[in-house]
TrEMBL record:
<dbReference type="InterPro" id="IPR009100">
    <property type="entry name" value="AcylCoA_DH/oxidase_NM_dom_sf"/>
</dbReference>
<feature type="domain" description="Acyl-CoA oxidase/dehydrogenase middle">
    <location>
        <begin position="135"/>
        <end position="226"/>
    </location>
</feature>
<dbReference type="Pfam" id="PF02770">
    <property type="entry name" value="Acyl-CoA_dh_M"/>
</dbReference>
<dbReference type="InterPro" id="IPR052033">
    <property type="entry name" value="Glutaryl-CoA_DH_mitochondrial"/>
</dbReference>
<dbReference type="InterPro" id="IPR046373">
    <property type="entry name" value="Acyl-CoA_Oxase/DH_mid-dom_sf"/>
</dbReference>
<dbReference type="InterPro" id="IPR009075">
    <property type="entry name" value="AcylCo_DH/oxidase_C"/>
</dbReference>
<keyword id="KW-0285">Flavoprotein</keyword>
<dbReference type="GO" id="GO:0050660">
    <property type="term" value="F:flavin adenine dinucleotide binding"/>
</dbReference>
<comment type="pathway">
    <text>Amino-acid metabolism; tryptophan metabolism.</text>
</comment>
<dbReference type="GO" id="GO:0004361">
    <property type="term" value="F:glutaryl-CoA dehydrogenase activity"/>
</dbReference>
<dbReference type="GO" id="GO:0046949">
    <property type="term" value="P:fatty-acyl-CoA biosynthetic process"/>
</dbReference>
<keyword id="KW-0274">FAD</keyword>
<dbReference type="InterPro" id="IPR006089">
    <property type="entry name" value="Acyl-CoA_DH_CS"/>
</dbReference>
<dbReference type="Pfam" id="PF00441">
    <property type="entry name" value="Acyl-CoA_dh_1"/>
</dbReference>
<dbReference type="InterPro" id="IPR013786">
    <property type="entry name" value="AcylCoA_DH/ox_N"/>
</dbReference>
<protein>
    <recommendedName>
        <fullName>glutaryl-CoA dehydrogenase (ETF)</fullName>
        <ecNumber>1.3.8.6</ecNumber>
    </recommendedName>
</protein>
<comment type="pathway">
    <text>Amino-acid metabolism; lysine degradation.</text>
</comment>
Length: 392
């Protein structure tokens, strides 16, 4: 892969909306991605392997629990800093961002918000430092967009719970030390349980043959009569709203992350268009290629504004699930369209691993599907504006 020459587009001087802390956090993450991720990521994506050696670096830039209070090992940052970290990591690779998102919003967040003080003290500092890695088990083979139909369940056996069922498509599963698992009790109510690697009957087979998020490890979670200690139940929230609350936080991070992938594709295509000569002039001097670039920077700028505003609302505790859905859907679609156009602009070179674009494009096919598909987010917006749920 070529040297990383990334320069971030900021067409509307949005840096002026950021605090010094935001810029410091973002620049540190940007510098780390250039140094530690860009040089190796293509190789790991080609090998379909997660680069475990970057876990410590991710922890050092505050990517694990950016908004978790410092007393639990988190970085104690605001929601915009969290978003900017996700943006910079996904500028490098969506799979690496997925690992950080899962750790922060899908593992640390529920332990912090729904867990006991003992659970917070036991798990959060180790998750923040990367000593423990976590995964989040909601999706099942027969229940993806409709997680409320899950069949994974646990029974009260007096001194422990007995957990049975299976989860599918779980990021980080093959190497996770703990899993936050969503399962139904005997009354059919959904609860979160912390399941630890090594518990008898708990296995995590890896999912192979992915063309997308190849540098992120994905797997199944299988529970065959797993005895889970009672103190591992997250007691402070139950029902489908509990996992959905985690997804709000993760989807918000994805909205920022997708901007990172889009910026990288735009920046690469812009530079290429200025250097690549055909018919005795740079391809960037042709109207057709300028149309693509002009539309890309317009869409990136709109997404940056939308997402910054969402960050302000999140900081004020006012962002709604539907607002987060809109940003996730819009930004991932925007990034995917830009990746496809940018790939074409590089001609044959666009399909190689010399450039990051094709990897971003393939990664974004997962990002547009997970944490609520493109269509499901449209239905959430539709329900929000009409008052009618069209899911069923
Ligand atoms: C790489 C990767 C990593 C993932 N990581 C995780 C993870 O860490 N943890 C986790 O729990 N899950 C994870 N997922 C699962 C992901 O969230 C699901 O794939 C996603 O929710 C969609 O579910 P599904 O694949 O079963 O598709 P389905 O729900 O079967 O949907 C298939 C199609 O039908 C459409 N559809 C469904 N219902 C409706 C409806 N009512 N009206 C109109 N259209 C509809 C969908 O939009 C989609 O286009 C991951 C997935 C991938 C690909």
């Amino acid at each position: 892969m070529r040297p990383d020459l990334f320069q971030a587009p900021d067409y509307y001087n949005l840096d002026e909306l950021l605090t010094d802390e935001h810029k410091m956090v973002r620049d540190a993450a940007r510098e780390w991605v250039k140094r530690e991720v860009s040089p190796i990521i293509e190789d790991y994506a080609q090998k379909a392997e997660f680069p475990k050696q970057i876990i410590k670096g991710l922890a050092d830039i505050g990517a694990f629990g950016p908004y978790i209070p410092e007393e639990y090992g988190g970085a104690g940052l605001d929601q915009i800093s969290y978003g900017l970290i996700m943006q910079e990591i996904e500028r490098g690779d969506s799979g690496v961002r997925s690992t950080a998102s899962v750790q922060s919003s899908l593992v640390m967040y529920p332990i912090w918000k729904y867990g006991t003080e003992e659970q917070r003290v036991k798990y959060l500092p180790k998750l923040a430092s990367g000593e423990f890695m976590g995964c989040f088990g909601l999706t099942e083979p027969d229940h993806g967009s409709n997680p409320g139909g899950m069949i994974t369940n646990f029974k009260d056996k007096g001194d422990h719970y007995l957990l049975n069922g299976a989860k599918m498509w779980i990021s980080n599963a093959p190497f996770a030390d703990i899993a936050v698992v969503w399962a139904k009790d005997e009354a059919g109510r959904i609860h979160g349980l912390i399941v630890e690697r090594g518990m008898e009957g708990f296995t995590t087979p890896e999912t192979h043959n992915k063309w997308s998020l190849r540098a992120s490890a994905t797997g199944e979670l299988i529970f065959d009569n797993v005895k889970v200690p009672k103190e591992n139940l997250l007691p402070n929230k139950s029902g489908l709203g509990a996992p959905l609350g985690c997804l709000d936080s993760a989807r918000y991070g994805i909205a920022w992350g997708a901007i990172g992938a889009a910026m990288d594709c735009y920046d690469t295509a812009l530079r290429y268009s200025q250097e690549r000569i055909q018919f005795d002039k740079p391809i960037g001097a042709t109207q057709l290629q300028q149309k693509k670039l002009a539309e890309m920077i317009t869409e990136i700028t709109k997404a940056q504004l939308l997402t910054w505003r969402l960050g302000v609302l999140r900081n004020e505790g006012k962002a709604t699930t539907a607002q987060i859905s809109m940003a996730k859907r819009n930004n991932v679609d925007m990034a995917l369209t830009i990746a496809r156009d940018a790939r074409q602009m590089l001609g044959g070179m666009g399909i190689t691993g010399e450039y990051s674009i094709m990897r971003h494009m393939m990664n974004l096919e997962s990002v547009v599907t997970y944490e609520g598909t493109h269509d499901i987010h449209l239905l959430i917006t539709g329900m929000d504006v009409t008052g009618f749920a069209a899911f069923k």
